[in-house]
Amino acid sequence: MKKLKFDISSAGLHVLAMALMLCDHLWATIVPGNDWLTCLGRLAFPIFAFMLVEGYFHTRNLKKYALRLLLFAVISEIPFNLMYSSSVVYPFHQNVIWTLLIGLGMIHLNEKAKKSKPLASALTRVGTVFLGGLLGIVTFSDYNAAGVLMILVFYFFRGDTVLCRLLQAVGMYYINFEMLKGLVFPVTLFGSSFEIPQQGLAILSLIFIWLYRGRKGYSAKWFQQLCYWFYPAHMLLLWLIRYLK
After folding, report:
1. Do 74 and 92 touch, CB atoms closer than 8 A?
2. Type and span of the H or E element at 185
3. Strand partners of residue 141
4. Cβ(240)–Cβ(29) under 8 Å?
5. Which of 27, 50, 78, 93 has the maximal Cβ count within 10 Å?
6. What is the mean pLDDT of residues 183-203?
7. Tell me, what DSSP letter sits at residue 4?
């Protein structure tokens, strides 16, 4: 008898990431104080970062994929500004699609460099870590340098081997426990006290990411469009609800 294996499709991961992101944005707008919502929200970006990497390798037309991301980065900017600062223009924090675009560019540079000599390819890997991080910082994109680095972790260590998963976990630990850190929760266990960063909960996203085995899942045109329009639409709706309260 063939052994059944549970997995999560690409469509399933997108729905999960959107739901987790909604939880975080609900906390940030109309139901503040419910910290469990933003704790769930910590898992959203790593899933989006992972799916961007998969999207790079599965897209039929990279140029159209990049232009689509660019279009929705522009469309999402005003809803993001309204939700984040109640202002149409806010130059000090840009929406997360800009972070994804920077990460996509760094992936493409590395893929192009694979055709070069090994030394040039290695230098490109190191260079894109610094270049991508710098772009994340100077553009004020969401998650800034840490967000771009998270994308590169899933790119550099892409695969379902034990080693790749171990390196993904190490990278996620460093980014979320050391780089981002932020608010911490005091925990006492067996008489010992320590602190867990709220952002550190993002590492739990690996549970769902590792259940993905390349299956696309539901892929109707309307669903693909929903995955793009959900981001600006839900931010605008949340801002409107908060504004009218």
Report:
1. no
2. strand 184-189
3. 94
4. no
5. 50
6. 78
7. P
Three-class SS of residue 119? Answer: helix
Nearest to 135 by CA among 151, 119, 123: 151
User: 62 CB contacts (<8 Å, ≥6 apart)?
Assistant: 56, 108
**Distance between CA atoms of 37 and 116, rounded to whole angstroms?**
46
Q: How far apart (Å, rounded) are the C-alpha atoms in residues 172 and 179? A: 10
| Phi, psi (deg, nearest 5) at residue 186 | -75, 135
Q: What is the Cα–Cα distance from 145 to 103, expressed in whole angstroms?
A: 10
Side chain identity at 106, as an amino acid letter? M
How far is the C-alpha of 171 from the C-alpha of 163, rounded, in Å?
Answer: 12
DSSP 27-38: HHTTSTT-HHHH
How many other CB atoms are there within 10 angstroms of residue 116's CB atom? 12
Two structure tokens written together for 201 = 């909960």
Question: How would residue 187 be classed by pLDDT, with cut points 50, 70 and 90?
Answer: low
Cβ atoms 169, 175 nearer than 8 A: no
Give the per-residue pLDDT at 1: 44
Residue 168: CA atoms inside 13 Å, Cβ hemisphere, count? 24
Q: 59 Cβ partners below 8 Å, 6+ apart? A: 65
DSSP letter string, 168-219: HHHHHHIIIIIII--SEEEEEETTEEEEEEGGGGGGGHHHHHTT--S-----
